[in-house]
Design goal:
Anaerobic Ribonucleotide-triphosphate Reductase Large Chain; seven-stranded mixed sheet; three-stranded mixed sheet; alpha/beta; single chain; 17 strands; 3 domains
């Protein structure tokens, strides 16, 4: 009998996602494996890295066949139990040619750099990777080019070139819609053009865009002072900092973009400043990276660690011992992923495999865990628990990486890193924690993505990736159904009301005690969204991907308040979205 005998408990929606995106398929798109076989295949492939390390650590003792099988069993178990998932490994579909999901690529102020990176980008995009770029080194529009005597077209023109290229090449038959993150510093002379670049919905359709906010700008903002727009040490003009922020806010209110990257805060936590500064992030903003670096991410499914008991202490309802085991096993899994991956370009392999070996252990199912614990998302108790859980995961991830460093060897740039200076003797990975959105991976575990609150207790999700734009899946919250049944409140008529409203707040038949716990994204005041992001960011090495969802009726002044709170909370990134500010959105209430 096979050692891999755990049958994953997938919902019908999860089975659909697995068949469309993750299971090995034949030429006609028919599944060639079951979800159990999927996790077994991944476990065996990722475990191949166990004995591919002796060249980096001379005294590394190779594992026996029995020891390798134990590692395979551990990797299979945490996936099949839906306690840990890594979207990157799931997407391999049996090809054993694993490529990271996201990268950052360099853009310098020359035709050679811009078109050279475009060629490399094409290689990555064809494999479904998302890519982030900082366009701040590209000279502003209208600047004279000495070599030709002509005027420069500016960074936005080249972003359009990249957008057109990706539309032409990358998304035909890909397993995931690979896109771009375009970043421009707040002090770049073309910043005002950049802010409004996506207000025409037909432009830059494959780009997310974010403004890199500096400490200098925040200082000018607080002092209601003028702020210099400059390039190559030349000041091109001055603007009032508050007026510039209001331009950004107006655009966010209208279209949901741009987002914010607090770039100086990012670099205050850069583990390898001796290697270089970080100026860009991956496509969703949760992973600041150096040029050519990649994301290697996975997440523990928090709701799986809930224990039902009679204790009055919330902490007693979490299986900390199991959470530690899954976290440490997941770190080993992610480190192995780096070893077995195809890095596609020599510059990527140099920094990802031999330089920094960054990984990002994150979480999903946070909102589900709070429902199980009957703790309101918008409460001090939830914030305290968020800090405690993320601190625990970060510490255990670091312990696992330290042990791997002792056994396998440290990441190449360890000497001179902040970890080296903090007194660590060994470390396998420059970073260990990141909170990703997990938009599709979370559907496999039937939990909410990342640390987001539930969008609605019944809603439609449109899959805008390879499932097809016309595919709509209806979701109703099973934990709410269970609670209503337990309280003898459940009826089909009541659930129809919930499905119509999406939220419980206006339904008279539901007691206040249940309404308080089963809150949705739009039930929660914006400041609580930001506080929650701050609580998790406090103990996360990289960044936290989270969207601050605002009701359609929200005003621009609310967006400004959220920005200032994000600065206060020391966030590394911020995304704000007002409901229905775009014609198409991934989530909508049924």
């Amino acid at each position: 009998m096979s050692r891999f005998n755990i049958e994953p408990k997938l919902t019908e929606n999860a089975k659909f996602i697995a068949s469309k995106r993750y299971l090995k398929i034949d030429d006609d798109g028919n599944p060639l494996e079951t979800p159990r076989e999927l996790f077994a295949r991944i476990a065996k492939f990722i475990a191949k890295a166990e004995n591919e390390l002796s060249d980096k650590k001379k005294n590394y003792k190779k594992l026996t066949k029995n020891e390798i099988e134990k590692v395979e069993d551990a990797f299979f178990e945490i996936q099949a139990n839906l306690e840990f998932l890594s979207g990157m490994s799931l997407l391999d579909r049996g090809k054993e040619d694993l490529v990271a999901a996201c990268y950052v690529m360099p853009i310098h102020d020359s035709v050679e750099s811009i078109y050279g990176t475009l060629a490399n980008t094409t290689t990555l995009h064809r494999r479904g990777a998302g890519i982030g770029y900082d366009w701040s080194e590209v000279r502003p529009e209208g600047t004279k080019v000495k070599s030709t005597g002509r005027e420069a077209s500016g960074p936005i023109s080249f972003m359009r070139l990249y957008d057109f290229s990706s539309e032409t090449i990358m998304n035909r038959g890909s397993q995931r819609h690979a896109g771009h993150m375009g970043i421009l510093r707040i002090d770049h002379p073309d910043i005002q053009k950049f802010i409004t670049a996506k207000q025409d919905y037909t432009q830059l359709t494959n780009f997310n865009i974010s403004v890199a906010i500096t400490d200098e700008f925040v200082k000018a903002l607080k002092q209601d002072d003028e702020f210099s727009l400059k390039f190559d040490n030349k000041i091109y003009g001055k603007v009032n900092a508050k007026n510039l922020l209001r331009q950004i806010i107006t655009s966010i209110h209208a279209s949901g973009e741009p987002g914010f990257i607090f770039i100086d805060e990012v670099n205050r936590h850069n583990p390898t400043p001796h290697v270089g500064k970080m100026t860009a992030t991956n496509q969703c903003g949760e992973q600041p990276l150096l040029p050519y670096e990649a994301c290697n991410l996975g997440s523990v499914v928090l709701s799986k660690f809930f224990i039902s008991n009679k204790s009055t202490k919330i902490e007693d309802k979490i299986d900390w011992e199991r959470l530690e085991y899954v976290t440490k096993t997941g770190v080993r899994f992610l480190d192995n992923t780096i070893t077995v991956s195809n890095h596609l370009l020599p510059d990527i392999e140099k920094i990802v495999k031999f330089g920094n070996r960054k990984i990002g252990m994150g979480v999903m199912g946070w909102a589900d865990l709070l429902y199980l614990l009957e703790v309101p998302y918008d409460s001090e108790k939830a914030l305290e628990l968020a800090e405690k859980i993320m601190k625990f995961i970060n510490e255990k991830s670091r312990e696992a990486s330290e042990e791997l460093g002792r056994i396998r060897g440290d990441f190449g740039n360890f000497k001179g890193s902040t970890l080296d200076k903090q007194g660590y003797k060994n470390m396998r990975n420059a970073t260990v924690t990141t909170i990703a959105p997990n938009g599709t991976t979370s559907l496999l575990a039937d939990v909410n993505g990342g640390i987001e609150p539930i969008f609605a207790l019944a809603y439609i999700r449109k899959n805008m990736e390879t499932v097809g734009e016309d595919t709509e899946m209806v979701f109703a919250n099973l934990l709410l159904e269970e609670k209503l049944k337990k309280e003898w409140l459940y009826s089909k008529e009541l659930m129809q009301k919930v499905a119509k409203a999406g939220t419980l707040q206006e339904i008279k038949e539901i007691p206040e005690s249940i309404k308080k716990v089963f809150v949705c994204s739009y039930d929660i005041a914006p400041e609580w969204h930001v506080k929650m992001q701050g609580a998790f960011q406090k103990y996360t090495d990289n960044a936290v991907s989270k969207t601050i969802n605002l009701p359609e009726s929200s005003g621009a002044e609310e967006v400004e308040d959220i920005f200032m709170q994000a600065v206060k909370e020391n966030l590394k990134g911020l995304t704000i979205y007002r409901d229905k500010s775009r014609d198409k959105q991934v989530l909508s209430i049924k």
